[in-house]
Amino acid sequence: MKALIVGVGRVGSAVAGRLHDEGWEVVVVDESEEALGRLGANWPGEFHLGHGMDTTVLEEAGIADADAFVASTDGDNTNIVIAQIARQRYEIPVVAARILDPARADFYSGRGFDVVSPTKTAIAELSHSVLSSGGS
Questions:
Q1: N or C: which end of the chain has fewer CB within 10 A?
Q2: 3-state class (DSSP) for residue 57
Q3: Is the pTM above the cut of 0.90?
Q4: d(Cα 73, Cα 69) in Å, to the nearest integer?
Q5: In the predicted model, is pLDDT for residue 136 greater than 60?
Q6: Are β-strands 68-71 and 46-49 bridged in parallel, bridged antiparallel, or unpaired?
Q7: Alpha helices in 6-101 (DSSP H)
Q8: What is the Cα gyration radius of the chain?
Q9: Domain limits at 74?
Q10: Buried b (16+ CB within 10 A) or exposed e, 53-83
Q11: Domain count for the chain
């Protein structure tokens, strides 16, 4: 199984490592060479330097052969666009995008790719922590 991850910050690098540990072939794309350092000195996967909205970069990274695609840049708009490209143009069966804005996350849920919103999760968990304490 092959996964393509665009955006190799804390989230993308951790996902890349986890998938690799599970036996996946993992290819990552980031616009900063510094991102390679987040993967560790012995990163066995491929690293492609470039912007995730550049289809030439995505094609060089092997998007046409990917079984899964993760959009985890620090920009919601970028993640939304590249997730849609991966799903609609390249028909990748599993596509997930990190979307920080809860309203955007709600809007794009159910539109052909999985949406993960850490902001929504934090709101729910923090509210639950306070409300479950019973005010004491």
A1: C
A2: helix
A3: yes
A4: 12
A5: no
A6: unpaired
A7: 10-21, 35-38, 55-60, 76-84
A8: 16
A9: 2-132
A10: beeebbeebebeebebbbbbbebbebbbebb
A11: 1
Yes or no: say if 100 and 118 are a contact pair by the CB < 8 Å rule: yes
Q: Which amino acid is at 1?
A: M
Closest CA to 40 of 66, 24, 20, 63: 20
What is the rounded CA–CA span in Å between residue 8 and residue 18? 13
Whether the predicted pLDDT of 56 surpasses 90: yes
pLDDT tens readout for residues 72-96: 999 999 999 999 999 999 999 999 9
Q: Which two tokens stand for residue 89?
A: 């143009």
Q: In angstroms, rounded to a whole number, what is the distance separating the alpha carbons of residues 24 and 15?
A: 11
